[in-house]
Q: What sequence folds into this?
């Protein structure tokens, strides 16, 4: 709702108290993000690499050092 061109209230569906909104849903309601076009997990088809703990940090250190 506006008064003299300024927003004075935002009308949203009532919260039924059944649960909290996800972070994404909250951002979508605020207009800070867009809802996904497709449903499902976008990472589901990616391969699952089992690397030893610390591998990413080691690779980043090597890259920074130029080795």
A:
């Amino acid at each position: 709702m506006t008064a003299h061109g300024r927003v004075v209230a935002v009308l949203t569906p009532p919260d039924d108290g059944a649960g909290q909104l996800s972070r994404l849903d909250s951002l979508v309601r605020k207009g800070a993000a867009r809802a996904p076009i497709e449903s499902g997990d976008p990472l589901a088809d990616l391969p699952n690499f089992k690397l030893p703990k610390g591998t990413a940090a080691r690779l980043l250190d090597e890259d920074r050092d130029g080795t």
